[in-house]
Every structure is written in C-alpha cells, then in structure tokens.
Amino acid sequence: MRDVSIIAIGQTKVDEHWGKSLRHLAADAILAALAEANPGRIDALYVGNMISGEVAGQEHLGALIADFVGLRGVEAVKVEAACGSGAAAVRLGYAAVAGGLCDFVIAAGVEKMTDANGGEVTAALALAADGDYETSQGLSFVSINALLMRRYMYEFGVKHEDFAGFAVNAHKNAIGNPNAMFPYPVTAQAFAKARMIADPINLLDSSPIGDGAAAVVLCPTEMARQFTEKPVRVMASAIATDSVALHDRHDPMALQAAYLSVQRAYSLAKITPGDIDLFETHDAFTIMAALELEACGFAQRGQGTRLAQAGEIGIDGRIPVSTMGGLKGRGHPVGATGVYQIVELVQQLRGEAGVNQVKDCRIGMAQNIGGSGATVVTHILERIG
Amino acid sequence: MRDVSIIAIGQTKVDEHWGKSLRHLAADAILAALAEANPGRIDALYVGNMISGEVAGQEHLGALIADFVGLRGVEAVKVEAACGSGAAAVRLGYAAVAGGLCDFVIAAGVEKMTDANGGEVTAALALAADGDYETSQGLSFVSINALLMRRYMYEFGVKHEDFAGFAVNAHKNAIGNPNAMFPYPVTAQAFAKARMIADPINLLDSSPIGDGAAAVVLCPTEMARQFTEKPVRVMASAIATDSVALHDRHDPMALQAAYLSVQRAYSLAKITPGDIDLFETHDAFTIMAALELEACGFAQRGQGTRLAQAGEIGIDGRIPVSTMGGLKGRGHPVGATGVYQIVELVQQLRGEAGVNQVKDCRIGMAQNIGGSGATVVTHILERIG
Predict the structure, then answer these.
(1) Last residue of a domain, one of B189, B224, B259
(2) Are residues B16 and B96 in the same domain?
(3) ipTM value of the model?
C-alpha cells in the first residue's frame, strides 16, 4: 500500500446559505481546494452526505457534483454513514489512493439543511437511529443522546454543569474561525440557563443545524511535494461500527466503535494517545465529547468532563479539542462535518490556524461519529512539510 | 494491485416482501452468501442502497446491517449512486481488496420499496434526476426516459414495436429464474397493447418496483480456492459519470458514461466486445437496453433494437442479454439491482443458471446505470473454476 497525503483543502463558511444550492456549496469547497493545489487530473470524487434526499430534494450527488465542478466523466459516488458520512468519504478516498486504484482523489462533504423546516430536519436526522426499534417509539436523535447523557450523569455522579467546559471551549475557539457559524462566546452561566431541548440536553449542549461543504485533495505522498510545500500525511484511517440501537449495546457508557476505531488507528500510526497534539472530537452533543475522550484514552471511564473542567482541552491545554470551534461552534452540516474536521486538522498542522494555532503541533486526530456511536471514523494526520 | 475474485453469492427473490423489514432482506442475502463460503473473517461491508431514507425510514444501513448479520464492529458504509448504487458497492469492495486494505469484503445491495405508496416511490426515484433543472419542472424519472425514447425513435426512424424484443426476451428468461418477480411470458402483442405510462414508454417497456437484496463475498484470487471450487475472477471494475440533466449532455443519444465506463473496463480486462459471452444490461426501460448495446460496441448508433428483433440477445444468441430476466423480469429493487446483476453473472459463469444456462460461457459483463445514464458501473467477470 502507498503512503497518502493531503495536498489541498477547501471549505465554505457554515451558515444559512439560502442563496446557494447544494451543488454550489459543494463546488465552492472543491474549487477552493483545487485553487490551492491542482494536480491537473482527478481520478475520483467521493461525496459524504447524509440527508440531501430527504431535505434538499436530490440524491445522486456523485455524478451531479463531479459534473458541476468540471470533472464530468470521473468516477464519483456518494457515501453515507449518518453524521459520519464526511470522514467515511475521506476514508474511501484514502483507500483508493493507498491501494493504487487512483492517484488523485477529491473527498468532499456537503449538507444543505436550512431550506427545510425544523420538523423535516429533525425527522431526517432521526434516520441515523434505528427506525424499527427507536424512532418508531417516538425517539428523536436528540432524545437518544439525552438518554445517554442522563444515564452517564446517574452512573458516574456527574452534574449537568460539569459539561459546560465543552461548550465554552468550542465557542471560544469558534471566534477565531472565519468559517464558524457561531463565533460568539458562551459562558458557563449562559450554559446553565439555556433552554431545554431534551432533558438533560439543553440548547448549549447541542450543535446547530447549518449548511456547508468542505473538501480535501489526496494523492500519494511521494507525489505530494510537486503540488504543495506543506503536505499533510495520513498516518491512519479507520472505521468501526456498533449496534445502531442504544438498548442493544453491551455497555452504552462505552463508545465501543470509537474504541475499536481509535485502537486500529493508533496501531496503524504506531502511536499512543500521548503523541496526539490536538483532537477534533465529534461534539454534536457535550456528552459525545466526554465519551470520546474516554474511548480514545484521554480520560478514565466517567472522567471525561474533568478535562473540560480543568482547562486541559483549550488551545494551550494538554489535549486541545474543537480547536476551530467544533461541531458546537463551527456548526454541524451533518454529512460535511467529517471533512471539516480533516480540513481544520490540516490548517493546524500546516500552521495556518491563525489565533487558534496549537503551538508546535505535529500529529492531530479527528473522530467523526454516525448515529450515537454506531459508526466511528478516525483519522490521524501528521505534518511532514 | 491484487487480483480479486468472488467466492460466494446470495440473493432473495424480488417480490413484495411485506412481511420482512429492510434489514431482514439484507440479512437473508448476506447470510446465504456466507453459507456458500465463509472465510471466517469479514473486514468490511459496503451496502448499495438508493432510497431507504425516503421510503423505508432508515439511513445508516452500513452499521445497521453489519450488526444484524453478526458483524458488529466491522467497517461498514452505505454507497449511493441512484440506481447504480449496487454495482458501486461492488466496485468499492473490489477496490478495498485489490488495494490490499481488506482481504474479505461483502458487497450487498438492498431496497425495500413496496411498503410505500406509488406516489412516494415515484418522488423518491426522481431524486436520481436533477432536482434543480428536471424534477422541479415536473419531470418524473419515467418521463425523462420517455423523452430519451421519443427522441431516439424520431432520430433513427425506430418504431415503438421495435423495442418489443427486449421485454419478450427478459420475461422469457425470468421464467427460469426462481428469484424473479415476474416469471411470466410476455408477447409482442401484449407489449403493443400495454397501457401507457409516459408516452412512448408503456407498462411493458418498464421494469417493476420491488423489494430485494443480493450480496457477494470478495477476496484475493490467490486465496479464493480455499473457500470455493468455482471462484469467479473480476477482470475489470469501472465507474464513469455524465451530466445528470439530459439537456446538458453533448449527445443525449449516446450514453457517454456507459461508453467511458465500458472502454475502461475493456482496457483493464484486455478484451473486446467480441470476447463477451453474455451481457447483463440495465434494462430499467427498453430504451436503456438499446442505448447500452450501442455504447458498448454490440450495435451501431441507432441500431440497438435490431439485435432484439433478430433474436441475437436470446440465451443461444450472439450476445445473450438479461439472461435471468433482467430488471424487467427479475425486478428492479433499485439499490440492489447492480448486485443482482453480478450474482446472476456468477451463476452463469459457474454453470449454475439451470434452464437459462448460456453454453460454454467464460466471460460475462454487467452494466448498472444510475439516473438516465449519469453514473454507469461496468464489471467484467471471468470463470476460472
């Protein structure tokens, strides 16, 4: 297998893009990436997207977007793994290049959610859960995460206020990210008073609905320096799965797919958690960030919120998290999120993260989650520029 | 890159499976394949599906189905390329094995359409077309194909009755396939009198809506004989794309993506059309079969229907087509169809096609189409058992 690197990145601001169609958003991100580095030939396009069929009136995004960005003819498909779709597209792009089927691949993620009304979006997002055993019982996707959070608080004696640090940190970092949807500070006091969504999850535990697209260009590392002075190497790419339905998991308090996925990734990269300089978590809800830090070896079981309380997840902390705002502050256009995480890691590893720059970072990790932990995609990237 | 073979196949009957959920259908096909040959380890599952989110209330099929068939933990994603989703999943499975990322992969396709009403299914299928420029103008997916067929008849002086041979042949072959949805004969007289759907496409030009699932197990050819006496080798796997919207194609009468895809496949397999012993076309509508035969080099431009009229597409003909009933007779559960085609090719190449057996066949081709030709996936398989 060949060593693979990212030679270019592109992204749109996450926002309510009412003036742009889904294909325009995707094109903005892809053409921005190609403007950074264009190898002159693209062999394949993998598009991460979850709910364009349900809320944007369009499936078949592979061919549609390939054509719109001037790549008519190229191999192109859509990849779906609920909110893990974006990183799954990066994973398939990585596989095509690593395996030698393609030299130059674009992995993109796109989602346009805000043209639909809240009910439509809520119903579409619930398709990530188990239709026969969860949503048919009236559970929404937020309420599934609320069950997880409630159980976590009960099991480990954690208070709701203990989660505040995740939201405060994410929004603080979003201020420095021009592509963030909500670049505004949030205080622990505001967090405590935010209106309830699905008890105990309140508004500031939750990532927002938004429109956006992000893209990366991948190629063999040995060719990368022809196109960029700052290639970022993919040390590891791994997907693992778990039961979609919460009730069927062996231990709902342990994100088993996050554990399996990250263990594969550590093994592939030949590193340990101590080698990670920053970690883009899938903080769709604060409970997810806590569970991920535990599954990935940064905190003991039931102790994830302590990192946030102790300030260890800040830009200058032991393990910086959500360094460009995370899902909470940058926004969460679901099928695009996993690609945003990779784009932001590349910004950090290139030293292009501006006021949010993590000092001397060399190795970063991103974890993108589908459902409440049923699909988990982990990437570990390394600066080699 | 490694040579890849198919070591096992599984399928359900295409039918109105009102008593089975989507995950049960998928499991029936996958477990049937694993009962044929089980390598004892599966590294990844790729699921082809188009509209489960819209008509079956479920996205996130990768993790859901992996778990349900006993593969919890494994890499799993859904792949979507409209009606070309099934073969796209096979393509990704092929890529993972060929590239060395995985040794044992299941590629499956599943679609459950008949629980929804006709209007819901028609709206969902139209998501394969261009939402901004076609469906927003009132075009359904059938009517887009009707535009193609009408133009073809005008341009080449072809009569509607000239297409009858495709439907007659498909239904004749369906009779010998226990998994076919409509194993009943159709006559040219019945074809001429069938009720109109979208002029000039009538009921017997059109493939039916159905539920079904199919699966294959792929592994490196060098390991294949440990698990089966009849491995079938993947000589070529190729995807190409075109404009989704018909009006934007350079020449709507030439399926450019079918041409590009099959040329790549011929080149990879180092063969010419004359080497193909049977061809599973994507006969969702009779016009598609005619256009494909032309794009793939079996007929001159505008002459595709002559093969059907001359009896050349029959089991004993020059180029047998739809040998197990095709989309028309076996049925067309959209996201599963591409995998059914591969399964049927394997049946033929193993010599297990019963009364439908193509004599002395060694090389077979399957072409799966998304939209009205915007995504085309071509596979060429070879008997090596």
Answers:
(1) B224
(2) yes
(3) 0.98
